[in-house]
Amino acid sequence: MTGRTLRLRRVRRSTRTVSTRKRGAQPKVVALGGGMGLSASLAALRRITGDLTAVVTVADDGGSSGRLREELGVLPPGDLRKALAALCGDDDWGQTWARVIQHRFQSKGDLHEHAVGNLLIVALWEQFGDHVQALDLVGKLLGAQGRVLPMSAVPLELQALVRGHDPARPDEVSTVRGQATVALTPGEVQSVHLVPNDPPAVPEAVEAVLDADWVVLGPGSWFSSVIPHLLVPELLDALVETKARRVLSLNLAPQPGETEGFSPQRHLEVLGRHAPKLALDVVLADEAAVPDRESLDDAARRLGAAVELAPVASVGGPSQGEVSGGGAPKHDPELLAAAYDRIFRMHGRIGPWR
After folding, report:
1. What pTM was estimated for this model as a whole?
2. Quick check: 56 and 224 in contact, CB under 8 A?
3. C-alpha distance from residue 297 to each of 215, 246, 278, 289 (Å)
4. Residue 73: closest CA among 87, 92, 58, 57
5. Residue ranges for the chain with pLDDT beneath 70
6. What is the DSSP string of 203-226?
7. How many angstroms separate the CA atoms of 354 and 344, rounded?
8. What 3-state class would DSSP assign to 131?
9. Which candidate, 74, 83, 26, places its Cα nearest to that of 54?
10. SS3 79
11. Sequence-distant (≥ 6) Cβ neighbours of residue 17 within 8 angstroms
């Protein structure tokens, strides 16, 4: 029996001990991802449940996060910060703190483009020596409507096999290193993996997945924010074994560079190749983003899932938690919340809260 299996069994036993919710309680929802895609999901989910946990990728190596990671050897805090901001309430306290932790300094010195929240998170990590305790304290300060956890306690490097990363050699397959580089490659990503290739999962993240009623994966950068969760063995084992139902939320459009030209069904095929043992229950997509419903149905069925189409794209101005990008389609938190709520109701509320 492997050490990983033993650890998962210990977490499973502890989960059974603490799962004592009463009938009528809110559903336990775990959302996995990173960046603004996860923020969009969290901004929606906090509207329909108060029992919400975000499990966030820690492979970012660009910007303020990358600089702190390189200088101090810490986990990249940026995606964790964004998740905390998305969980802030709509009252003055929540919105003020969301703006504060997202604020970036503008200067000609070393503080240029550092985010306040990144510095706060790293300072508390150094004070406590405990990633989870520090993030819980930041969440308490912000009044966050949920919990934020890293998927692993060690910084991870994302590597990808990419065809045509060098435009001068369009047929050459090469290894591309670093999340920031993978996200912007002009080539075609074939597959991704993590270094180290067997990273330890944060036990609280595994426990949350095993104890959830629903697990939501995506939306977000497919190769650099969504799939990395499936490359942490203990986390993947928990996703496979959990009694929770699993929802995959598709993006509104392919991402320039990383998934340029991808159809909705190709997103599913890529995910299935990286985690062939993982079954899904529901695939959520915006109807306007699905030109071929039959092909998407077929791809979802191969993963065990049904397709649910709903209007989730923003048609107005910016909203908290939207996917960023110049001219890129954005998720509307209220519409996405309505879609999640309908899925939770239609596809069987499980557990003592139904």
Report:
1. 0.88
2. no
3. 20, 16, 17, 14
4. 58
5. 1-25, 316-327, 348-354
6. HHHHHHHHT-SEEEE-SS-IIIII
7. 10
8. helix
9. 83
10. helix
11. none
